[in-house]
Structures are given as structure tokens and as C-alpha cells.
């Protein structure tokens, strides 16, 4: 498992791995929002948590089809399926690698982008907490989507369509947590719900992903 | 009368469908005609909502069937995954376009009613939002069926999507409830308290309720008839393809 994780990370960091893609997309969203809605700081403060969450989600979505597609094309995935490591572990590691290359940079960069969007000081902690809790769920759900569409020629659009409704609960609770944190309200309900979703999908969804991947590899 | 699994045999299923399709379709027609005519012409206007209330006879049954169709797909998907009956997978495939149509009907009739009543075509109310999400689930499900060539692979993948989607659909329902308090009224057609007489809250008056009940029965029968018909069509399509393949081999 460690070897697989290392391999995936190296592949992502090396040239053409698309490591910076998500973060660049995140930057684009955050920079363009003030141009489109106006520079008024009160308005930006109000929408900042939502925009940051939306940007992070879209940046995550952008890189989903890379999780499995490249390994599918060159046959690596078939080898992994026949390896002693169970496929459930493979998809979990793949999701972990995706999170480490996409989710973690987003979490780290989010406070910086929060400054651009005039996020109030008390909001930074909860923004980081919500993203740190929520992005693993995005990666795991995304891996499920990638496993569903891996055999398709142009699965990218279909992947987005399939994933979109699955991302709704995570987005709602994540953005709500960040918003309440920024406005100084009680955060425990969305915090617990977000943590529940995140740990729930991490525990259960790899089994579904491995199941559909087996079907696709048949 | 043997086990219910006998009907998993496509031939037997088709024969049974041929026998039952006409009566069920007739029943649906009769119920819908009676229910809609009764509802539209022989019920009084609501004292506050006027004639707009009559859209209830389309809106409520369609919304009900939109959810029930997904539920039926969930059950047939599970049967396919556990017992590998092709008819079951094809029934799920056949039900999806009907379900999405029902969802669209519910959304559109709701918007038409909402414009004069709430003063807006659309509001991000939990029920409306949940239906929009349900609509997206249906679209994804249908698109996945269409995108995959191999029928067994497609059946497997869509079944898993249906099951995972159901979990997330329920989750979304609670999430949007939490996210926004709504304009939409609560369940007011049928409530446990209303039947036992302990319910003191407002409920749809009997004048509107009976034609609505007929309409709901009509929609259920219509759904059953359409699913049977479409499943049989899918079976025939599958068989045609098999025969053509065999001919090409010979």
C-alpha cells in the first residue's frame, strides 16, 4: 500500500501529473469572483465561505478523472487488480493520493484566498477545519465516480453529472460550517454532520468503488 | 401459482405482461379520466387559492410517483445484484425515464402553481431542492445506462449507482432541510393522525381528497402499465439483438 501511495504521489508531482491544476483553478475562481460581483467588502465577506467551498469543490472535480483513467489506459489497473492487495485497498490509496495532491494544497491555500475575499478573522479556523474535514469526502466520492466511468471513452462529462448530486450534502454542511464559523455562530451541528459524512464515506464507499471497478475490469 | 421468481423468466414475464397490460392500462385510463374530470370540473374552488388549487391533481400524484419510481428502481437493482435476473435490471432501466418524467411534471406543475401563490416560479425550498437533486440523480442514472455498451456491465454499474445514490438522496433530503426552512407546506394529504381522527392540524378537505385519491390510483396504474410495457420492449430489443448476432454468426 505504501509503495502504491508513493508511486501515485510521485506520478502526480512529476511533470504532466497535473498537481498544480486544482490549486490554479481554485485561484482563478477566487480571483474572478470579485470582478464579477464587485469589490464591495461587505458582500465579499458574506459570500466568502461559500465561494471558497465552491472553488475547492470545482478544483477537486477537475482532477477526478485522472485518478484512475491513466492507469486504466496503460493496463496498470489490471495488474493492480491481480495483485495480492485487495482492490478496496487500492481505491482507498488512490483516494488518499488524490486528497494529498488536491485536497491538502486547497486546505493550505484556503486561508490565503480567504484574505483576498475579506473573510473575517474568526472565520479562518473554521474554514480550514471544514475543508480539512470535507475534502477527504470529496476525494472518496470522486474516486467512486471515477471507478464508475473508467471504462468510458469520454467519461469526464458523465463523471461530473454523476458526482454532482453526490457532492450536495458535503457541500451544504461544509459551506454551512465555514459560514457559521465566519459569522461567529454555534458550529457544532454542521461540524458533526460533516465529520459524519466524511468518515461514513471513507468507511463504506471504497467497497462500492472496488465493486464497480471489478465490474469494469471484467 | 409458484414462486414469484418464475416471472424472472423473460418468456413467462412477457406472457404475463401481455395478459395484464390491457386491463392495467384500462384501469389507469378510467381512473385518470374520472379523477381529473372530477377534480377539475366538479370540485369547488378553494376560498383562498381559487382555481389554482386544481393543479394538485397532477402535482401530488406525479411527485409521489417520482419518488416511488426511484424506490422501485432501488428494489429491482438489489434483485439484479443478488439474484442476477435480467428482467429485474431491465425493469429498473425501463422505470428511469418514467421517473424523470414524473419529476419534471412535479417540478413544472409546482412552478406554475407557485408563481401566483408564492409569487415566484422557483424558490430554494427544501422540497423543491430535493426534487431538483432527484432529477439530477435520474439524469445521471439514465446517462450511465446509455453510455455503456455491454448490457451486463451497464446493469451492474447502474445498480450500484442506484443504491449509493439512494443513500445520498436521503442524506441530501436532510441536508437541505437543515440548510433552508421552506415555503412548501408539510405533508397534508395523508397523515396517520388524519385517519385516526386525532389530527387537529389542517389537512386537505375531503372534497378535494377523494378525486385526488382516484388520480393517485390512476398514476400508480399508469406507472405500472408503462413499466410493464417498457420492460417488455427492452426484453424484445435484447432478443432481437441476440437473434441478429446469431444470424451474423451463421
Automatic annotation (TrEMBL), chain A:
GO molecular function list: heme transmembrane transporter activity
Main location: membrane
Coiled coil: none
GO terms for biological process, alphabetical: cytochrome c biosynthetic process; cytochrome complex assembly
Keywords for this protein: Cell inner membrane, Cell membrane, Cytochrome c-type biogenesis, Membrane, Transmembrane, Transmembrane helix, Transport
Record membrane topology: Multi-pass membrane protein
Subcellular location as annotated: Cell inner membrane
Transmembrane segments: 12-35, 47-64, 96-117, 123-150, 157-178, 190-213
Claim: Cell membrane is one of the keywords in the record: yes
GO CC annotation: plasma membrane
Family per similarity comment: Belongs to the CcmB/CycW/HelB family.
Function: Required for the export of heme to the periplasm for the biogenesis of c-type cytochromes.
Protein name (record): Heme exporter protein B
Lineage of the organism: Bacteria, Pseudomonadati, Pseudomonadota, Alphaproteobacteria, Rhodobacterales
Gene that encodes it: ccmB
TrEMBL record, chain B:
Domain Cytochrome c assembly protein: 13-184
Cellular compartments annotated: Cell inner membrane; Membrane
Gene Ontology MF terms: heme binding; heme transmembrane transporter activity
Family matches, as Pfam families: Cytochrom_C_asm
Any single GO BP term: cytochrome complex assembly
Keyword Nucleotide-binding found: no
Keywords per UniProt: Cell inner membrane, Cell membrane, Cytochrome c-type biogenesis, Membrane, Transmembrane, Transmembrane helix, Transport
Membrane topology designation: Multi-pass membrane protein
GO cellular component: plasma membrane
Main location: membrane
Transmembrane segments: 20-43, 55-82, 94-114, 126-145, 157-176, 208-229
Coiled-coil segments: none
InterPro entries per the UniProt record, alphabetical: Cyt_c_assembly, Cyt_c_biogenesis_CcmC, Cyt_c_biogenesis_CcsA/CcmC
Function statement: Required for the export of heme to the periplasm for the biogenesis of c-type cytochromes.
PANTHER family registered for this protein in UniProt: CYTOCHROME B_B6 PROTEIN-RELATED, HEME EXPORTER PROTEIN C
Family statement drawn from the similarity comment of this UniProt entry: Belongs to the CcmC/CycZ/HelC family.
Protein name: Heme exporter protein C
Organism field: Shimia marina
